[in-house]
Specification:
The complex is a heterodimer. Chain A is an all-alpha fold. Chain A contains 4 helices and no strands. Chain A has helices at 3-19, 41-55, 61-65, 70-82. The longest helix of chain A has 17 residues, at 3-19. Chain A is globular, with a radius of gyration of 12 Å. The relative contact order of chain B is 0.23. Chain B is an alpha+beta fold. In chain B, strand 3 and strand 4 (114-123) form a beta hairpin. Classes of the chains: A mainly alpha, B alpha+beta.
């Protein structure tokens, strides 16, 4: 894992913990929705919107629908931040 | 643009909504039954005056129910549902006050079809309640 991926995971962790109401939740690049209790469609919306607000980014529907795990999300955010 | 997507397409950040309303004695009685909140501060004039209010105060949750109208009735279609809200009650409202509800769409997420609103309720220009509401559009 690169330093930028690690730093972003550390920043995203409290967002995940807040959305899923689990202070002990630890996320890693290979985690998928089915691995997290409560990660349903509404939680997914809250998660994406929370990340958009926290990081000052906007995603497209196509970008979000293509994500398969947290690693994809991290790479998408890094790509967007690099293009700012 | 078809009828399914037309509602979403009309929403834009900065879009404003607003209307006037008032709360009646019948509304207060109905909400008291519904909520089982029988605190006399909402029903007993003498009790309310002893607490420093000129009259019984309107249930805060009854005021914030205008958010339900925003999401269910005032948006362009019936495809949105409320997913969250927060409201601060900064000053009391009384039965028959002429109240105004205002909302502004502050975030439209194309990725998730989520909508965030900033809301407030005023009387004669003074803010009585302020807060936020979130909805998701699901055609």
């Amino acid at each position: 894992m690169s330093n930028s991926e690690l730093q972003l995971l550390e920043r995203l962790t409290p967002i995940f913990q807040d959305v899923f109401d689990d202070d002990s939740l630890v996320i890693s690049l290979d985690i998928k929705a089915e691995d997290v209790d409560g990660w349903d469609s509404l939680a997914h919306i809250r998660l994406v919107v929370s990340i958009e607000k926290a990081l000052g980014l906007r995603f497209s529907a196509a970008e979000i629908s293509s994500l398969e795990n947290v690693g994809d999300l991290v790479n998408l955010v890094l790509k967007k931040q690099a293009s700012l | 643009m078809n009828s399914i997507t037309s509602g979403w397409a009309t929403y834009h950040e900065g879009q404003k909504f607003g209307w006037g309303f008032h709360v009646s004695d019948e509304d207060m009685q109905a909400f008291m039954r519904l909520s089982n909140d029988h605190n006399p501060i909402h029903t007993d004039s003498e009790f309310a005056q002893r607490k420093g209010f000129k009259a019984p105060i309107v249930f805060g949750m009854l005021l914030s129910s205008q958010v339900s109208r925003l999401i269910g009735e005032e948006l362009a279609d019936k495809h949105s549902m409320l997913t969250g809200m927060s409201m601060d009650f900064v000053s009391p409202a009384f039965v028959s006050d002429e109240l105004k509800f205002f909302a502004e769409l502050i975030m439209k997420s194309e990725a998730t079809h989520a909508l965030d609103f900033k809301c407030k309720i005023t009387r004669d220009g003074k803010t009585l309640c302020r807060g936020s509401a979130s909805a998701v559009w699901r055609p």
